[in-house]
Amino acid sequence: MHCSRKEKSPVKFNGIKHTVLSLFVAAGIVISLSFATASHRHSPLTVTETKPGKDSSIDDAEKKKSSNGYFLYDSLQLDRQGLSRRAFEYAMQGFEYLQQSGAIDNEEVISIVDFSLPSSSRRLFVIDLNSHKVLYCTYVAHGHNSGKEYASQFSNKPESNKSSLGFYKTLGTYMGGHGYSLRLEGLERGINDNANRRDIVIHGAAYVSEGLIRAQGYLGRSQGCPALPEKLHKPIIDKIKNGSCLFIYGKDKSYPGRSKILKAAVA
Length: 267
Prior knowledge:
The protein is α+β, with helices and mostly antiparallel strands. The protein folds into 2 domains: 1-59; 69-266, Beta Barrel (L,D-transpeptidase catalytic domain-like), CATH 2.40.440. It has helices at residues 2-68, 71-75, 85-101, 210-216, 233-240, 255-258, 260-266; strands spanning 109-114, 124-128, 133-138, 166-176, 179-186, 201-205, 228-229, 245-249. It has an 8-stranded mixed beta sheet with strand order 3-2-1-8-4-5-6-7. It is globular and about 45 Å long. The termini are far apart. The relative contact order is 0.14.
């Protein structure tokens, strides 16, 4: 009898246990469904408000960075080659403005002369904007009255024998007193627009040589022309002729404020 009672009680307890468990399971399912429904109801708002905004800002920043071409300065390690970041940034700002305004015809290359460097440094940089390569990095002379080792004084006046800063458009070639040469059009009024009148052109010169640097510590100087080494002037001219952008930079605090191209580029 005792054994039969003991056998019956577990059956009764199991029935109660199953009933309680069933209630808990059912309640759990209801709670889970409630949370799932609430989560499903609110999650789209969370995703819409945060993730797309973040991604779009990153995309916009990357597109802007890419379009400006500023990434080239780091990717090409132009700092190690001596080109100042400011010279590069000014060059790219002006290039984009001239490109958008249709002022230049050859958009594949840009040439930058960094006169903040001494003439004993390679301070002409010809950059291919399509292949992202530095095509040439070589010496370039400045005007006789702009300074000895460094170019520190600049002028747009005829007979000044000084270099002129700013943005230029390359024109056609010709054979002159310095042989194969490239005409330049100064694009900045009051800064370099007398280039044609002054016969400011790109040409080769014997005084632009490493031998002269070894002998006296600096290059020979021109009458204001950005003269190049005789061994390189022809291939460089052929690469940048007919409508490409040339930018000449120097340590002149007044230039950025006077340049209408730079002002328009950042407006």
